[in-house]
Specification:
The protein has 733 residues and is mostly helical. It contains 43 helices and no strands.
């Protein structure tokens, strides 16, 4: 019994042990392993040997699936292999990364592996490989498969292990095919390993120009003093396209040195390039590497602006305008002002184009110490220089500059005078406002008038009150200047005071200027009715001439008080007042003035001139005031039509009916279509009306347009009617 129990126990334990040993094997199918090793499912702890075994099994599972005939099918498994690499390359998993990389290297060497799979494995080594991958990748670079060689080259290019450079250098030494040489040289350049400088430099002498060009690019990428020294060797070779490529490469190296604060080394390269390019241009007629010279000068100034300022005289007088411009541009971007001061001192000796550039530099830098040479430039015979000097003084904004500009604004002419005035209108500075105010208060009349106008443009607080004071001056020119300036500050003007000044104006020219200012003040008033009432009240105490002048301003205000005053004037027994009132109503900004105009036009005693003015004004308001009730507009238009004295006004009223899509307008136009005298105008108006009606009643619009089309009045009217019928347009004129 005891032996039997013991036998059963042993068997049970063996069975249990076997299940423990075999269970993981059954659970870890290829698919499950891939999920575990990609981090998508939980994985058991594995030592290096177990991990290598697991990776190999997962890859063996994926290989046939990755080479399936169906591209879509194999793509999913290629991505699965990529996911293995991504998970293994995560931070802190170096053992997994190295193990997978070694497994991939062993796998890629398997015979009979499809090319697509082999290439894909090398791509994964490009992503995760380090030192352990280098020997295998180097071996692949000797493959007869051109694509595989290039995949391996690219993988080595990105491999961080230092031994990679030696592998690439060996491949370069053995390379004979130009295309393959270029690829290896490019890889060495991308790695930026200084050990590669000499072997890459040797490729500068390659008989194939593309290989030599690739060597130039690689040396520029490697950079440093060694790379620069190697690139300078190009200039000892026969002249070729490599010259410009090498020069650009040296500029790139110098710029990188400057970014690393190695300004001395960078300056040496820039200086050698500038001098070499200058000599080259002198010795080779028709060949001027101005871009190299310009970039070198800009680099020199950036590296050592204090020292390079001494060479400004030489550079800024260079015959090539691009080189001169580069010097100015470089001075704009360095913190030091020394190069700019050197350029400013040379200003009178420069050609106009360079003077303009230097003046722009001074303006942008806002340099107060350069005002003296800028002022001298104001007397240049070249207009572009004068204008640039004015702009510079405007931006710098000193008292001295303000006085210089004021002199030109008063006594100058043409574009310079206009620029000086515009500059003073916006010029900033501690005493600019004070200077202009002083000139406005006293001095020669033209200068005072100019300064007064500038006060309005500058719109400083309290300017309106000051200008009202000048508007009361006994000098007519000063009054006019003040009224003109008040237009610029119209919203701040006391309308009652301004109206009083207009009323007191003695000359017509002064009063006209005052009326312009008054119109602006009424238009800009916050409370237009109150402002209008101030003018109306003053009109009651002035003579007819002043009243007429002030009356013409009231349409700028609008509103009930102003309308009442203008309507009253339009019906005044005084001919002049009546004429002004009718003309002012014709310009009224709102529909309310139309009724009075129609009433005036309807009176038999109204003169023909005033009748015509009233009809035109009323029809303009009826047509334009689309926010007014359509019924009211139609009624007034019909009233004009019914009481028209002449066919001209009838035709005008018919045309306006075409803008009023109302039943009354349609009915009247239908009647007019029977009138041979007005048939054409009525047909045209009906088509216009149909076009407007189309937006709200498409069917009615088509019916109306078809009616006109059937009448066949004219080709033009038929064309417009067809447009409404087809829906192509509104049929409007």
């Amino acid at each position: 019994m005891t032996r039997s129990l013991l036998r059963i126990s042993v068997v049970a334990m063996a069975t249990l042990a076997l299940s423990v040993i075999t269970a993981p094997a059954h659970a870890q199918s290829g698919e499950e392993l891939v999920k575990q090793l990609s981090g998508k499912t939980e994985a058991p702890a594995r030592d290096a040997a177990q991990l290598a075994q697991a990776y190999q099994k997962a890859i063996d599972y994926l290989l046939p699936l990755m080479s399936a005939d169906d591209v879509g099918s194999r793509y999913a498994y290629q991505i699965a292999l990529q996911d293995l690499g991504s998970h293994a390359a995560r931070p802190g998993a170096e053992m997994e990364r190295g193990t997978l990389a070694k497994t991939l290297v062993r796998t890629v060497e398997q015979p009979n592996l499809p090319d697509t799979v082999r290439h894909w494995i090398v791509l994964q080594l490009e992503r995760i490989g380090k030192g352990e991958s280098v020997p295998g990748l180097a071996k692949l670079m000797t493959s007869s498969d051109e694509h595989l060689r290039d995949y391996a080259r690219r993988a080595l290019e990105k491999n961080p292990d230092p031994s990679t450079t030696n592998a690439l250098l060996k491949a370069l030494a053995d390379a004979t095919d130009p295309k393959w040489k270029i690829g290896i040289v490019n890889a060495l350049g991308a790695r930026r390993d200084r050990d590669a400088v000499q072997p890459v430099a040797n490729a500068l002498n390659d008989t194939n120009p593309k290989v030599a060009a690739a060597a130039v690019t690689a040396l520029a990428s490697i950079g440093g003093q060694d790379g620069a020294t190697a690139l300078f060797r190009v200039f000892d070779m026969p002249v070729s396209t490599l010259y410009m490529k090498a020069a650009q490469g040296l500029i790139d190296i110098a710029q990188e040195m400057a970014r690393q604060n190695d300004f001395t080394a960078a300056a040496e390269i820039y200086n050698a390039l500038y001098e070499g390019a200058t000599v080259f241009a002198q010795e080779n007629e028709g060949m001027n590497p101005f871009n190299v010279r310009a970039a070198s000068i800009a680099g020199l100034i950036a590296c050592d602006p204090e020292k390079c300022a001494a060479r400004i005289f030489e550079v800024i007088q260079d015959k090539d305008p691009k080189v001169r411009a580069a010097a100015v541009q470089a001075a704009r971007h360095v913190k030091s002002k020394t190069p700019m001061h050197a350029l400013a001192a040379l200003l009178p000796e420069l050609p106009p184009q360079s003077q303009v550039q230097v003046l722009g530099l001074i303006a942008d830098r806002g340099d107060l110490s350069s005002i003296a040479p800028v002022k001298k430039a104001l007397r240049s015979s070249d207009e572009s220089v004068r204008l640039a000097a004015i702009e510079a003084l405007t931006k710098v904004g000193t008292d001295e500059g303000a006085e210089a500009l004021f002199e030109i604004a008063v006594a100058g002419s043409g574009a310079a005078q206009k620029a000086a005035r515009n500059g003073l209108a916006v010029m900033a500075g501690p005493r600019v406002e004070e200077i202009i105010s002083a000139h406005a208060a006293a001095g020669e009349t033209n200068a005072r008038a100019m300064a007064i106008g500038l006060l309005g443009k500058r719109r400083m607080p309290g300017t309106a009150e000051v200008l009202l004071g000048y508007a009361a001056d006994g000098n007519a020119d000063i009054c006019r200047a003040a009224f003109g300036a008040l237009v610029d500050v119209a919203g701040e003007v006391d309308v009652a005071t301004l109206a009083d000044l207009v009323a007191k104006a003695k000359s017509g020219a002064v009063r006209d200027s005052g009326v312009t200012a008054l119109r602006a003040a009424l238009a800009g008033a916050e409370n237009k009715d109150t402002a209008a009432e101030a003018v109306i009240n003053r009109m009651k105490t002035v003579d007819t001439s002043a009243r007429i002048s002030m009356l013409t301003c009231l349409d700028a205000s609008g509103g009930i008080p102003a309308l009442a005053a203008v309507c009253e004037a339009a019906q005044s027994p005084d001919e002049a007042l009546r004429d002004t009132g009718i003309r002012t109503l014709g310009n009224w900004p709102a529909f309310e003035g139309a009724e009075t105009l129609v009433a005036i036009a309807s009176k038999p005693e109204t003169s023909l001139t005033h009748y015509v003015l009233a009809v035109r004004g009323a029809l303009r308001l009826i047509s334009a005031a689309e926010s007014a009730p359509l019924e009211d507009r139609t009624t007034l238009c019909l009233a004009v039509l019914d009481r028209a004295r002449r066919d001209d006004e009838r035709k005008q009223a018919i045309a306006v009916l075409g803008t009023l899509p109302s039943p009354k307008a349609i009915d009247r136009l239908s009647e007019l279509l029977k009138n041979d005298t007005m048939k054409t105008e009525a047909a045209m108006a009906t088509v216009d009306l149909a076009g407007r009606l189309a937006a709200t009643d498409r069917e009615a619009a088509r019916t109306l347009a078809q009616k006109i089309r059937d009448m066949n009045v004219s080709e033009e009217i038929n064309r417009r009617a067809d447009g409404v019928i087809s829906g192509r347009g509104r049929g409007r004129r």
